[in-house]
Input
Amino acid sequence: MSTLIERHIVSLLAEKDDKAISLLYENYGDTLFGVAFKVLKDEELAQDVLQESFIKIWKKADTYDASKAKLFTWLFRITRNTAIDKLRSINNKADKEVQMEVSNVYKIGVDSIKPEHLDIQENLDKIDPKYRIVLEALFFEGMTQQEASEELDIPLGTIKSRLKIGLRELGKIYGTALALLLIILISS
Output
């Protein structure tokens, strides 16, 4: 790929011109699909990752810095990281499904405890809003940490930290054991 075409694509991206996506797909689509496929070993998932990657590229176009990396390197990293996140998500879901099927843990009394009787919302309101927003996104809206990061426009590491601190704050209100029970109740 010529440097001239690359510069043209970068300028179109910076201007949020729709032509940039067409040119990116035309010039890099097959290669980026190959990157996703190599990680996932599944054509359908690789297509999904390619689409997610192009959305991320479009949204984060203003973060591209030509002095730090070539355009292809930047595109490669976004696609590869998206594919790795997808693979981890699939593996985590598979692990949870297997654990649920082979679990020999008895559910004693969980059905008789109703979240509305524990004043969850009232006690969530006592927590700093930055932690409450993360807890609500993850537990009440059912988002993954990655989805919450993208939706709330908060870095993934910050999401994880705020989740940990928010759970700790709930633990202070309810006690550790009851806080864990709450998490199970509100996430199911």
